[in-house]
Design a protein that fits this description.
Strand 9 and strand 10 form a beta hairpin. The chain contains eleven helices and 13 strands. The protein is globular. With 342 residues, it is of the alpha/beta class. Helix 2 runs antiparallel to helix 8 and helix 9 packs parallel to helix 11. The protein has two domains: 123 residues, Aspartate Aminotransferase, domain 1; 205 residues, Aspartate Aminotransferase, domain 2. The two termini are 28 Å apart.
Length: 342
Amino acid sequence: MVVTHGGDLFAVCRARGWDWTEVLDFSASINPLGPPPGVYAALRGALGRIVHYPEREPSLLIERLAATWGVLPEQVMAGNGATELLHFLARMAPHARPEQPVTLAVPVFSEFHRAYPLAALAPVERPGAWPAEGWLILTQPVNPTGKLVPERTLCDLIFNSSRPVLVDESFLDFTDHPSSARWISQRPNLLVLRSLTKFYALPGLRVGALLAHEETLRPLRAWREPWQVNVLAEAAALAALADTAHATRSRSFMRDERAWLCAQLAELPGTAPQESEANYLLVRLAYPAGRLSAALLERRILIRNCAGWPGVEGEAVRVAVRTRAENERLISAWRDALCGCF
């Protein structure tokens, strides 16, 4: 399959000669409140360190992440974003071998399809259809639907077999749901992928982490390339994690604004937003998703076309939840574009 995803703002603007600051990007689901305020000061304070190599592994960041997520430092592998880590796993982990089958519980983040092009696909909402053997990869919450995989389903998957399981929790911080990482000390078969770039609005710096039992991570560390987290990214991540008030404010804002945006979209003809626990909404359409995406692009608004995404049936798009002013502009442009979509 052809892998496409959101967050291509700069390339789109360069191709069209647009000023990127005048374009709204609803295709990438980033915290609309931006980074915690202390991040900018931390970046300025770290500038003097760019003339030196970072640590091979960012020890201070790993310790902070372990404390934040309630795991041991040796159970954390930091990386240059969640995408870098998932591709590293595909190259180096035992399940990359052909004799170790991989199943994607779809829909999932599009990069998993590129990392595992030969993977089998099974619907995430039908656990009974999941193969009983080999690796299983799923997202929590599901991308792009924003729904949570039930707790009982995860427990059965992780505790009732020794099969390896990778749970991508890149958007979990936007919810109040506990992380599966609380089980990794008991279950060496479990790996959890986390991203700091979405919730803390740091996608341009790239920070992510892989959590797993220390015995699971030990052989992977032996093959790990050094310096995956640069000094600016580490400084920004440390400052972001320290601001717990910003995290609380972000979750509260997201609950309220997601409900408002969902209600506004539901009033548009042929437009059916789905309930979500994440910072994005999957919107099912009675008209072509490609036509809507093109019409909004002409109005300098990017959204994510999900038509043809494995695990998503029919015409659908995904839109991020942004600030009220940005969401109002989206609704206005969407309503204006509808006349050419049917």
